[in-house]
Amino acid sequence: MKQPDLLTLGALKRAGYPHRTVKEEMRENLLRLLREKKPFLTGIIGYEETVIPELVNAVLSRHDFILLGLRGQAKTRILRSLVDLLDPWIPVLAGSEIQDDPMDPQSPLGRRAVAEAGDEAEITWIPRELRYHEKLATPDVTIADLLGDIDPVKAATQKLSFSNENAIHYGLVPRANRGIFAINELPDLQPRIQVGLLNIMQEKDIQIRGFPVRLHLDLCLAFTANPEDYTNRGSIITPLKDRIDSQILTHYPRDLEESSAITDQEAWVQRNGFTYVLPPYLRDAVERVAFEARDSEYVDQSSGVSARLPITALECVISNLERRGALTGETRLVARVSDLTAAIPAITGKIELVYEGEQEGPLKVAKYLIGKAVKSAFEERLPAVHPPKSGRRRPDAPEPEPASPYRPVIAWFSGGTRLELDDRLPAAEHLARLREVPGLQALATEHLGVTDGPELGAAMEFILEGLHQSSVLAKEELEGRKVFLDMFQTMFSSLEEH
């Protein structure tokens, strides 16, 4: 804890301030949290039984570690949350570039301050937020960036020779002394630069250029990596991998509930000026898009599908409602299936396609994934469109199952009728058009629990979309409009065109 009255080395000694390494500090603070049943890594969902226990063990073991997982698995957020395991404040020698421990200074400036002033050496206090340092590994990172180099400007202004250790400009790693230093995407770091980390990992010291002085650093080192990077962009050299004490595997949400909780936590959905209703079946469909993508033959599974996909998709859907409200003047809007097409820009940029997907094109693949998600949500809530066929019925067998509940709807379209919808339609007109379809309202009321209003219109459109995805109805999309029609009508139209 910060003690403002302790402003000299002597005062610090007399107060009996404990000297601990950063890993001992993190370990003790974590044990205290565990004993007090306080949360660790708040805001991280789905890792309670997998990643978090392994991370806890790594910290308790005083390990340097790496988080290995595909993109969008909260690796960076976990690293940045580690700062909560540090003490709120720690004392450092005033003016030190590398946060020198007053009890054990390492830099020339720190050693000189203690040698000259003794117990009167001035100290200052720094908050834990300044003790977390992070670097994204890129191919242009140099040893000087990480460790340091000779600073000719400092040498010139202070009239120092280049052989004087006071002419050193410290890099990111020594400036993170007594804190946490994280490197994101470690395989992107060139092998010759990774070699520069070997001494830090094992001996906990660095050597800059040809200076004989060595700095013994007090660090907790943490890394992230994507398995894809091992083959596509680089690799972690074997000696460095051997020095990383723990490797922790991250993963995507295991089920829809976990995924929805993450999306609800992260998505920006609180908009001013209007209210909206997102029916459960559509909220379900938004989340299912990511799950469908992770199983799709068109998507490169080794690249992964980020948890950011449903987050940004949901934001796009809400924004489409906001746009419709601005056009129609409505202040309360209910999301419709047609609003899901607004999520296409959020999908196409977050999936890497294999050859077959590239042949189809990202737009077509995105629409395909949305269709699959809608179909899954539809099949979970409504009767089967294609019930399993039974064999020949015996004379003593029970009566056959009643006719399909969708028969009135399908029959209406079979008569050559077409239904045109537009996502810009006001709620009243949208509902009026859908009510023309016989039997559709009864299905929405019985299986989706809605009886009237915009919710009813949204539910009826969802049923039509489910029938289309089940290959019972055809659908044509033209400039923001979509037309539902009989499947055979489409086939005959295609034949006439040819």
Concise structural overview:
The protein is α/β, with parallel strands linked by helices and 498 residues long.
Distance between the termini: 81 Å
The second-level CATH architecture of the largest domain is 3-Layer(aba) Sandwich
Measured by DSSP, the beta-strand proportion falls in 5-15%
The total domain count is 3
Structural class: alpha/beta
Jot down its keywords.
alpha/beta; Rossmann fold; Helicase, Ruva Protein, domain 3; Arc Repressor Mutant, subunit A; five-stranded parallel β-sheet; 43% helix; 14% strand
Question: Helices, strands, pairings?
Answer:
Elements: H1 9-14, H2 22-35, H3 51-60, E1 65-68, H4 75-81, E2 89-93, H5 108-117, E3 123-127, E4 132-136, H6 143-146, E5 148-150, H7 152-157, E6 168-170, H8 172-175, E7 179-184, H9 191-195, H10 198-202, E8 205-206, E9 215-216, E10 219-225, H11 229-232, H12 238-243, E11 246-249, H13 256-266, E12 275-277, H14 280-295, H15 308-328, E13 332-334, H16 344-348, H17 355-360, H18 362-381, H19 407-414, E14 419-422, H20 427-434, H21 440-448, H22 453-469, E15 473-478, E16 481-486, H23 487-497
Parallel strand pairs: 1-10, 1-11, 4-7, 7-10, 12-13
Antiparallel strand pairs: 2-3, 5-6, 8-9, 14-16, 15-16
Helix pairs in contact: 13-14, 13-15, 14-15, 14-18, 18-22, 20-22, 21-22
